[in-house]
Amino acid sequence: MRPAHFVPAGVVLAALGVIAGVAQLARPAPATTSQVSAAPRQVAVSSAVRACPPAQGGGSAKVALISGSPVSPGSPSPATTAGPGQVELAPLPLAGVQVHAVSPISQTDPGALSLLAIPAASSVSKKGTTVAEGWSVTGTGVMASAMEAEETESSGLSSIRCGEPSSDIWFVGPGQQNGASQIQLDLMNIDALAASVDVRVITEAGPVQADGDTGITVPPYQTVTESLSALGANSPVVAIEVRTSIGRVAADVWESSAAGSSWLPSTTAPSTSMVIPGVPPSGSAATLFIAVPGSLSARVSVLAITPQGRYHPFGAQTVDVPGGSAFYAQLAPLGGTDAALELTSNVPVSAAVLVPGSGLGAFTAATAPIIGQAVVAGNTTGSGPSATIALSATARAARVRLTEIALATSGRSAGPSLSVSQVVTVQAGHTLVVPVAAPKGSRSGSAFAVVITPLLGSGPLYAARVETQGQSAVVSIMPAISALTTINLPPVRESYSAIYP
Question: CATH topology for 164-265+268-366?
Answer without folding.
Answer: Hypothetical Protein Tm1070; Chain: A (2.60.290)
